[in-house]
Specification:
The chain is of the alpha+beta class. The protein has 3 helices and 7 strands; from the N terminus they run βββββαααββ. The two termini are about 15 Å apart.
């Protein structure tokens, strides 16, 4: 998924699957602000986020600036956009068919609005921000990161 990582094992579960090995989750942040909040800055990198689930380490990458409260929209490029594009395909149960190319253009904006509608993120504006982040599904991988 990201350069410089080594996975001992990668497990993925269906977005809507149930059971002990459901590894798709979303981050909860009760203090999230709308995506258009003036205090938010553009995401320009990714950060490794690790969780322990049932005693085992799982990890994923979140878009970030100085923290994970940042926005992405038309014209952004880079690893943060790639992370969101992958998560959008997952959040829509693969139906987006979005090319993970790291470029936020009109197709990514349209896909984001579709995902926001599907997961109940408001506003449905095609802009990635804290509210959308908290509602989206993310692929949590099992194993060590090099």
């Amino acid at each position: 998924f990201m350069p410089g990582t080594r996975k001992l094992a990668t497990l993925a579960a269906s977005v809507f699957g149930l059971g002990a090995l459901v590894l798709v989750g979303c981050v909860l942040d009760a203090g999230a602000q709308p995506a258009q909040a003036a205090t938010n800055v553009s995401c320009y990198r990714t950060v490794l986020v690790q969780r322990v689930i049932n005693g085992y380490p799982y990890w994923t990458y979140f878009p970030a600036a100085s923290n994970t409260t940042c926005i992405l929209g038309n014209g952004n490029q880079g690893s943060a956009v790639k992370a969101v594009q992958e998560a959008m395909n997952l959040s829509a149960n693969g139906s987006q068919g979005l090319k993970v190319d790291g470029i936020w253009g009109t197709k990514t904006t349209s896909a984001m609005a579709n995902v926001q509608s599907r997961v109940g993120a408001r506003p449905v504006d095609g802009v990635y921000g804290p509210v959308t982040r908290d509602k989206m599904y993310w692929l949590w991988r099992y194993g060590l990161v090099a």
